[in-house]
Every structure is written in C-alpha cells, then in structure tokens.
Amino acid sequence: MRYRGPGRRPVGARLPVLMYHSVSELPTGPLRTLAVPPRRLAEQLGTLVGAGYRLVGLTEALDLLDAADEVPPVVAVTFDDGYANFLTEAVPLLAEADASVTLYPAVGHLGNGPAAWLGRWATAFGPLLTWPQLREVAAAGRIEIGNHGLRHHPLDVLPARLLADEIAVSRDRLEQELGTGTRSFCYPHGYHDRQVRTLVRRAGYQNACEVGRRSYRPTADDRLAVPRLQPTPDHSGADLLALVRGGGPRLVPQAKRLAQPAWRITRRVARRYGRQLT
Length: 278
Prior knowledge:
Elements: E1 17-20, H1 38-50, E2 54-56, H2 58-67, E3 74-81, H3 85-96, E4 101-105, H4 131-139, E5 143-145, H5 160-178, E6 184-186, H6 194-202, E7 207-212, E8 226-228, H7 237-246, H8 251-272
Parallel strand pairs: 1-3, 2-3, 3-4, 4-5, 6-7, 7-8
Helix pairs in contact: 1-3, 1-7
C-alpha cells in the first residue's frame, strides 16, 4: 500500500509525525522519556507553530498530502494509550496552539484505572480515560480518535484467532461508544508484520502508525506502517524543531528493522511461557 497521491513528490520529501504518551512529569525511571510535562509540551507546540508548521492529526495530515502537489508545512501529532491527563492537560494546550491531533486509546482498558500492561510501573502516568471522558475529548472537536487495540498486546506475536478482537472488535466498540468512524490504527508497542497489516487493511483502516523514530516518506513508506518521531521531556522547543527538520537518525531505525525477525521469535517464545517483553 504505497503512496499514490496527486502530483510528484520530490525524492527525500518527509512528513514528520510526533508520538506522545503522557502529559505529566516523571523525575526518574524507565518510563521518564514518555512523560512530557505540560510546560514543556506548550513550549514544543509553540515553537513548531512559530516556525510556520500547522499541527494536525495523522489522517488529516495524510488527507492534506493527497490534496497538495508538494508536502505541506504540517506536523502530524499523535498521543498513544489514552491517559486521563490528555483531557486535563493536553486539550487546553492544543486549543491554545490551534492544533488538532490523533489520540489512540487502548480500548479494552478504558475506565479500568492505570495502564495494566506497564506492570509494576502501571501507576506512573495516572489513570486512563473513562468512556465519559473520551466522549468529552471527542466532543471538544479537532481531535481524531484512532484505535490502539483492545488489550495493548504486541499484535505480531498473537495467534490469528485473537487478532480480530484487537483490530476489529476494538474498533466496533469505539464506533458504538462515540458514534463516529475510525480511520486510523496504532500498533501497540509499535510491533506489526505482514499478517497484521493485511488484517488492518481488510478491517477498513486507512492508515496505521508504528514507532520508527524517523519521518514518514510519502513516496516510499507504507501508510499502514507510518513511522513517528518521539518528543521527550529533554527536548526544548528548539530541539524538537531540529528533530522535525532533520527527520530523525538514520542508522538506529534501520538496525532495528533488520533485527525485527529475531526479536519477534524471542517475544513469541516469551509469550508462550507467560512473559511479555516490550
């Protein structure tokens, strides 16, 4: 599923897509880089807007790409998991920046407290959104609600019989609760393979994102494997602007892609014996 939009994109053209998680602060610990404090988020968004970028959700960014002859000056912004601090902290800051984003809630965990898949660090980011809170987010406008699966399992190591729940049943639940369609999917933990992408396509999603740690290349990359850049609490506004303009590192993402088959086998064995590696 390669890009087939109008016009001819210059070779090397990129669309930066940002991957956020929690809008909070963690002084230490293995999850610290996934928590961006509100003041830092405001600085990052403000710097990008000040540099002339329009901040939009992933599907809107791809729609704009289809309608333009050149890659427009936009940055796609996404938030994974669906923490309650998205409503209390991010939504006001996004409104101030005149930004729209895509939020990917872990559907089966909504309203059940903290993120259980994080194990002993489950409470680090606070509770996940409840369904009434997610409806409030959707009603705020300009926020696309995508799908992050049902149980936040790495999909590429799941038996085929469970993939339908993660990809299709979770979407049905979202659409029933919110009364809107779901065009975008986000792979839990970023993992996917050809079978997973095929099922995502058959389920009717128009795009899906991974981690990737580089910008999306509209002339080469699969829209069902859109890579993203990760802002951290250590990125000043100027740092993030440089990351967006530079497109991220080259060697690390390539090395990770080459290592995926062996790592997938390791995780399948671990899952068989009741462990989960992330």
